Write the structure tokens for this entry.
Amino acid sequence: MSDPWLAAPNLSPAQIDADKIVERFALRMLAKLVPAYEFVTKQRSGMRIFVRLDISVFLADGTPRFFVNEINNDHCSSMFQAGDEGYRNEILFQELANVLHFHTIQDRKLRRGGAQ
């Protein structure tokens, strides 16, 4: 029997979360959060564009368990820019810019009465 994934000596996401359980958890939570927010506020959620979930991980009976600590619509990526010497976060910034551009264009089309 292998060690639990949190006890593995190398915490590489490719090795540790080969089944993508953290990703599946985050996406399941997002699929619940967005409709709930939109139902309560009666408006479209900004979480459809970007959301940062602070997820806790713990072991219960040797099984990884998760819960959401905090939900934030700010990526707070500026905290990591000073240490990003190899521009590893560039793909995040580019994707965020692309998504915001897409939604801005869609919003303009809708305001002008155009098709989606």
Summary: The chain has a mean pLDDT of 75.
